[in-house]
Design goal:
Length: 1036
């Protein structure tokens, strides 16, 4: 406990001290009591203060230090503006939603899609955003939402990988949204406000589009720079300008409603000039007629001169379509009571370059001259329902404008739900009513005229407004500028929040800013990215890109709410109660559907970008524990999978080595043989279960700290060797007991180890303490009793590291006893790793002198062919009968022929292994099942011998062979070792069957000598002992 510094004022002590106290002892006791009472009061006050906000409760030393540093940084940072629901959420959402699309594209969408399909488009988009707002409200009211808004909600709900990926996509969408709003403002400025300000001019009618794009690039860059300066000065100035901009938006919308209802009795005078049924560009001529009267003389009009060559009117050289069709004028705004709604009810999609025509007008179909194409109003792009969905959706994407500035809100939990839902309700009503009013008041050819060429370059929605079209033009201009400012304000804050979480290292610099917390560097990057959108210079091309990024963000907001609701985590307690997981899933489905409806290729690109960001964050290892729902979902999925695994053992086709690696630690708790982990990683290649276990000697109460240090050391080594698995440390008084505990208790449910890997006890001959090799043999016995496979890499320090590559060489398999296919499966798994990939596999099997070696080799080749295992060569080694009899430490092998049985029968015949003769096990109930690589004839002979001796009383028990000479056993090992060394001395790895230990512990030392002699002279040996079951099959 640290020193507690507490100041006690003398005046306070004088008041508290009784007047009769005069002795020093009494004075000291009183001072002590006062000090203790004030200290506990101070501690209670501190704890009460911490309990006010759950985010301030510290969970440990590390969290306490982080909390203190965070508190210090908060004390240094000045207070941000505290805004309420109206100024902080409702108005920014209105400005973003009522942006560029309402004034520049909604009339065109109604003209192309018709009223019915336009209502469907608005319904789809607004329903999607409303469902997302409901999910967002539930997440926002489930705790404090600091700066970052949507990113904070997604990352804390779905984890840093999803949060970073979706957060960056949303940041890119918000940044490109600012570019779209700026492009809309420049389009209004150059086409309707000051057309004379254009810098580039078209030399012909076909070059007008390219000139307009260049003008928008220049003016868009200038406007972006000015807006960035305004945002850099401070968010409070943006908020002050927001009121002015929103007032312009409201006035513009009101003027539309007033003009629409006024058109019922007094429609505005906007006539359209029609040639036949084709719509003419009205600003190219003065009078809508072929001829005009000057005095008493009929002279050609400007329209005539556009279509005809100069000359005599009696024999003119004119465009065929112009000569054969009449010029008429129709009302562009018939009014609310004209019945034009019937004509505008259904869609009229056009291809690029198709001339806008009015159905019902008489027209003679004649081919006109190509040079006169610029006189007609035509479609600049091909239109379809899916395209219009992608263009319209950005008009509904301003719902995150308030949550992006959550750090500036006084009460984000209250303001975000109320302000966002009210804003969506308001804008949805305006969109639905505007679609109906536009279709009921405006002529169809005017609606399909995107830039107002038929109404003398007026903004189409402005022709309906009252008292003047200039109200809409000016109002829409300020509306788009305001929406652009809001986007430029929110996007840098979003990037700053991502950078401060430090989940993407290269974005760390963007977490810094000015002294008042303004994200300066993030604003600079936002401006550069927005400039890319400006250079595209086409609002219709930028809008679908925004739709993808926003829809992806909304999809994951709905997913986050649904996951948290279904998991029912204890921390999921939102104050907003009007949500349901079904609504979240519906919103998620609508987002996904709208992504592919709008543009399937843009949707794929957006998903690829999000996936790359996700994998990058996962690769960098964003170790953030935020209590996210994905972790809870993983726990639920793991529980479900473990319960499913309890149904039964895995099928042979699904069998893979699930390793329990037993490590030995030195006195400093360092891993003694790290190459065991290296070999395990090469064998597993990140697949399946790997448990790394070790034993710490001592008492659990006294050795807990040592156990923690050992666990951390092993985890560090696992990370270095890239072993993906779990670490299990056991404290036991004896190492042998600890290993037994590990073998019994590691794993969970059906996810348990089936193979044990441990090191060889080096120097056991020179060791005075026999416990090391006794523990080794005891572990072999325990794995056999538990029916687990065993692998013992010998000379493991010579095994290759993960950075080495074998460019040639062989992996030799000495297949003496069929142990379920372990010897066949392990080389195949090793060759999947880059270290062993170029090594070739050779198989050696043994036969007696009287066996048919040629037939045996053919059977082996056929068996390996059916196993789909590629091998370089097969070799059959002939040994004497006495050598085979003493092969595995005097073990009696009673087998069927695995090879021939698998080729000629449906089910492989399984053989039985009777262990050491010292064990006195009944022949009829052997504990293991193995196969010997003998021929079919030898197998039949063995069966006949068993039949003869089955009912013999003496065959009930195995013969005690304690008096047999160990010299003969060592001689057998030497002979077999000579054969192996002669054939495999240059092999990269030798796999060999490992014989079982004797039941009688008196022969343990002889067993160790037997293994030493058997593997002497081999650089790398892997001793393998099967677990008593088939691990490989020829069937699919």
């Amino acid at each position: 406990m640290g020193i507690i510094k507490k100041t006690v004022h003398f005046s306070t002590v004088q008041v508290l001290l009784p007047r009769r106290m005069t002795s020093m002892t009494e004075t000291w006791l009183c001072l002590r009591s006062v000090f203790i009472s004030q200290y506990f009061c101070h501690m209670i006050d501190c704890q009460t203060h911490r309990l006010v906000s759950y985010t301030n409760i510290t969970q440990g030393a590390k969290e306490h230090e982080e909390e203190e540093s965070a508190a210090a940084s908060r004390r240094k940072t000045p207070k941000s503006p505290n805004m309420g629901t109206l100024m902080g959420v409702y108005l920014p959402c209105l400005q973003n939603i009522f942006g560029v699309i309402l004034f520049l594209r909604l009339t065109w969408i109604v003209g192309m899609a018709g009223i019915m399909q336009s209502l469907l488009i608005v319904l789809m988009c607004c329903s999607c955003t409303m469902l997302t707002a409901i999910s967002m409200s539930a997440i926002a009211t489930n705790g404090v939402v600091p700066a970052g808004g949507a990113y904070f909600m997604i990352s804390r709900s779905l984890g840093p990988e999803f949060g970073g990926a979706v957060g960056l996509c949303f940041y890119l969408g918000t940044t490109f949204a600012s570019a779209m709003y700026i492009l809309g403002a420049i389009e209004i400025f150059l086409k309707y406000l000051v057309p004379q300000a254009a810098i580039f001019h078209a030399t012909d009618t076909l070059g007008s589009d390219s000139a307009m794009l260049n003008n928008m690039r220049v003016y868009g860059s200038i406007c972006l720079s000015l807006m960035a300066v305004v945002v850099f000065v401070g968010v409070k100035y943006v908020n002050k300008l927001a009121s002015l901009f929103l007032a312009c938006v409201i006035i513009s919308i009101v003027s539309i409603y007033v003009g629409a209802f006024k058109s019922m009795t007094h429609p505005p005078e906007f006539t359209i000039c029609m040639l036949g049924n084709r719509t003419l560009v009205r600003d190219r001529f003065d009078v809508c007629a072929k001829t005009v009267m000057k005095g008493n003389t009929t002279v050609p009009s400007q329209l005539w001169e556009m279509f005809c060559l100069p000359g005599n009117m009696s024999s003119p050289q004119c465009d065929d379509y112009f000569i054969q069709n009449n010029v008429t004028e129709i009302q562009g705004i018939p009014g609310l009571g004209s019945g034009i709604i019937r004509e505008n009810m259904w869609s009229d999609y056009q291809q690029k370059g198709e001339i806008s025509e009015k159905a019902g007008l008489q027209s003679v179909d004649a081919r006109g001259a190509t040079e006169n194409f610029g006189m007609y109003v035509s479609a600049d792009i091909a239109t379809s329902f899916t395209l219009l969905v992608g263009i319209f959706f950005p008009s509904a994407t301003g719902i995150m404008a308030g949550s992006n500035r959550s750090g500036d809100l006084r009460d984000a939990q209250k303001s975000i739900p109320v302000g966002t839902i009210l804003a969506i309700t308001t804008t949805s009503f305006v969109y639905f009513s505007s679609v109906v009013l536009f279709g009921s008041c405006i002529e169809g050819v005017v609606l399909r005229d995107k830039f107002g060429d038929a109404v003398q370059k007026n903004l189409v929605v402005g022709t309906l407004s009252w008292p003047s079209p200039w109200v809409i033009v000016i109002g829409s201009f300020f509306s788009t500028v305001g929406a652009g400012l809001q986007s430029l304000t929110g996007a840098p804050r979003l990037l700053q929040a991502i950078a401060k979480d430090n989940i993407i290292p290269f974005l760390r610099v963007f977490g810094h800013g000015k002294n008042n917390g303004e994200p300066t560097w993030a604003l600079l990057l936002t401006g550069l990215i927005a400039e890319l959108g400006i250079l595209i210079a086409s609002l219709d091309m930028v809008a679908p890109i925004l739709s993808m990024f926003f829809l992806m963000c909304y999809l994951f907001v709905n997913l986050a709410c649904a996951v948290q609701t279904l998991l029912r985590t204890p921390s999921w307690r939102p104050r907003f109660k009007y949500y349901h997981w079904a609504l979240s899933f519906l919103g998620m489905s609508m987002c996904l559907a709208l992504m592919f409806i709008s543009s399937w290729y843009y949707a794929i690109v957006a998903m690829v970008i999000a996936g790359m960001i996700y994998k990058y964050i996962e690769y960098q290892g964003a170790e953030k524990e935020w209590g996210d729902g994905i972790r809870g979902l993983s726990l639920s999925a793991a529980r479900y999978a473990l319960l499913r695994l309890e149904v039964g053992p895995p099928h042979t086709k699904n069998w893979r080595p699930q390793l329990l690696v037993l490590l030995k630690l030195d006195e400093d708790l360092h891993v003694k043989y790290p190459r065991l982990l290296t070999f395990a990683s090469q064998l597993k290649a990140g697949k399946g279960l790997t448990i790394v276990g070790s034993v710490v000697r001592g008492n659990f109460l006294d050795s807990y700290g040592e156990m923690q240090a050992a666990e951390q050391a092993i985890k560090n080594m696992m990370e270095i060797e890239r072993v993906k698995g779990f670490c299990q440390i056991v404290v036991a008084s004896k190492v042998r007991e600890g290993i037994v505990h590990l073998i019994q208790s590691c794993g969970l449910g059906g996810m348990k180890h089936n193979t044990v890997m441990m090191g060889w006890p080096y120097g056991w001959r020179q060791s005075e303490d026999p416990r090391a090799w006794k523990t080794f043999i005891n572990t072999v016995r325990c794995t056999t009793a538990a029916h687990l496979a065993l692998m013992v890499p010998k000379n493991v320090s010579f095994y290759p590291s993960n950075h080495e590559r074998f460019t040639d060489g062989n992996i030799d398999v000495w297949w003496i006893v069929h142990d379920g296919g372990m010897l066949m499966l392990l080389p195949f798994l090793l060759k999947l790793h880059k270290v062993w990939r170029k090594c070739k596999m050779r198989i050696f099997t043994v036969a007696q002198m009287d066996d048919n070696s040629i037939q045996m080799k053919k059977d082996l080749a056929m068996f390996l062919y059916q196993l789909r295992i590629e091998t370089a060569a097969f070799h059959v080694v002939n040994l004497t009968c006495s050598t085979l009899t003493q092969l595995f430490y005097d073990t009696v092998l009673v087998t069927h022929s695995m090879l021939r049985a698998s080729l000629y029968s449906q089910w492989p015949l399984q053989a039985q292994l009777v262990k050491d003769r010292h064990s006195l096990v009944l022949v009829e109930a052997p504990p293991e099942k193995v196969h010997m690589t003998w021929t079919r004839e030898k197998c039949e002979a063995e069966k006949r011998n068993r039949t003869k001796t089955r009912f013999s009383p003496r065959s009930r028990l195995l013969v005690d062979s304690r008096d047999q000479s160990n010299v003969r056993r060592m001689h057998t090992a030497v002979k077999l070792n000579e054969v192996i060394v002669n054939r495999s001395h240059d092999a990269r790895l030798v796999l060999l069957n490992m014989p079982g230990p004797p039941r009688d512990t008196d022969g343990d030392e002889n067993y160790m000598e037997f293994l030493e002699v058997l593997t002497e002279g081999l650089e790398r040996v892997l001793l393998v002992r099967g677990g008593g079951r088939e691990v490989i099959t020829i069937y699919s």
